[in-house]
Amino acid sequence: MIVLHAHLPFVRHPEYNDSLEERWLYEAITETYIPLLSHFEKLAEDGVRFRVTMSMTPPLVSMLTDSLLQERYIRHIEALIELAHKEVERTRWMPEFQRTAQMYLRKFEHCRWVFAEKHRHDLVQAFRRLQDAGFLEILTCGATHGFLPLLQTEKGAVRAQIGVAASHYKKHFGRAPRGIWLAECGYYPGLDEALAEFGIRYFFVDTHGVLFADKRPRYGIFAPLFCPSGVAAFGRDVESSKSVWSAKEGYPGDFDYREFYRDIGFDLDIDYIKPYIHESGLRIFTGMKYHRITGPSLENKLPYNEENAMRKAAEHAGNFMFNREKQIEHLASVMDRPPMIVSPYDAELFGHWWYEGPDFLNILLRKMHYDQDVIKTITPSEYLQGFPKNQVAVPSFSSWGYKGYCEVWLEGSNDWLYRHLHAAANRMIELANRHPQASGLIERALKQSARELLLAQSSDWAFIMKTQTMVEYAVQRTKQHLLNFNDLYFQIVRNQIDEAFLADLEGKNNIFPDIDYKLYAD
How far apart are CA 504 and CA 60, in angstroms? Predict the structure, then answer.
């Protein structure tokens, strides 16, 4: 069971011409989503039987379907195509880099064709068609990737994260979600009851979530548990996960693969590269990287060779498949049902961080189809249909973060968040209870209040504060959404709505246009 978790925080800044943080989306489209989509479509076209489970979180879907961001992506990829043409010319007498420059030009032009011409700016519907054809099973996630164990003190806040997500999924994928990816695999006992309320049949937890359940799991992590609510919990397999996501112990750290941190945005003369970095002149990644990992020193990198990297991806795909065959053969000898291995990864690992990742996945799925008859890929729904009877137990409180619980999202750098998030959630519940049937300006203000609260609850902000990457931006986003919420709260309580202020927020933070604020009501 290959599970890809595709997520980015909601970043949309119409007030800026060149938003640094919006580039997170454009890079992921170019390096992850289009390469994965193209491989999946070609696999289906070639008659390869494959099954992949993939979450597409509501913030990601909202950004991929936003017309402003779609137009800005076209501008972004066209600038990269222009840069690649210049690089092909600049490296004409540099044979160690020339073929790599041509590779980038070819791939950037392919991305523009797929996005603008083949799928008419709508990648979400392209993934939906793969789901409708039976190759993908697409999961939802909490509305804004809220870390639910730290929101559980206000049940309405948890309920809204799930209910808004379920409604949003149905709007874009034409059916109710069968499963959910809990943000950061964050689970606490009782959460499954809220999932069951919205018809969700299964979720995923980290290994210890199953192994430390209130009853000893008969099959360990190699079969799901049913919670008392009837919702299934699938546990992550450590062995298959680490071999792919770990740069130190897994495949992505191989010296033949492309080095992520060596980029021409930092290496080339500023006058040459300036049109392709941030408009302020801040040097940033362009996505064009000419070196392979080679070793730990950034300076002493050897030139990248695509052919060698593809050979290594094929070797690693074969090794991964062989290891799963042996793992399953052993498990099958001690189990009275076919063992199931759950291998979940962040989707952005494939292509963005590990450039060859989509090719590895493509080769792996082809090898599984043509080269063996021991294992097959499966989706959670297929498994539950084939094995409708499973052990009943309550998984333990857990996450897949560092040390397995809450430390990443609740520690010295970010613990100040939660008193404000809890206070705002209580105020939102109060507003929903007070206004069971609002209309006009009040209804608009209530909907925007819910949007601002949800955006403040994104687990990404606490994660960024912990990892010390874009801390100033994460703090600013959190505080701004909370300030917006509080302003709206007092305007609603006093029945003095500032329509210009409200309209400005509706234009900037336009996620979930059909949001039902009444999900917060008791």
Answer: 22
